[in-house]
Amino acid sequence: SFYNTSYGVFFVVYPIMLLSLVPAFNRHVAKQFIFSASLNCVEMVIIIGYLSQWPVIMTLVVFALYVMRFRFMSKGPLFLFGSMGVVCQSVMLNFMSYPTTNWHTLLFSNIEASVMAVCLSALMNYLLPDVEPRKPPPLI
Question: Which member of 13, 32, 38, 74 lies 3.0 to 4.6 Å from 81 by CB, making a disulfide possible if both were Cys?
Fold first, then answer.
């Protein structure tokens, strides 16, 4: 409501996602998060802007991107990159499918919400540090 944007979902979901999925905030996490948002913006422009006239090819490309993202999620170190890509891609594909959507506002809101989520997470981790060191998750 502060930004008066139609795409407030980014500003709600991204901080929650970043604070709940990441056990420890660091530079690697921040880079994954912002790079994923930026890459998704480029992908959406290509997919919707150029491939929308060929629905079968567009569907195959989107499917391949989802497969790639789920593969990143299963490998471990790039889990956040993959999960952020899945969330971002599904939301942006939905919004961009409407002919009245302003792409510039959508893309800018996505990047701005990502940067804001990273800044808020860094601030929260600085102001509210862990009382005791986190234990690594159990090996499967």
Answer: 32
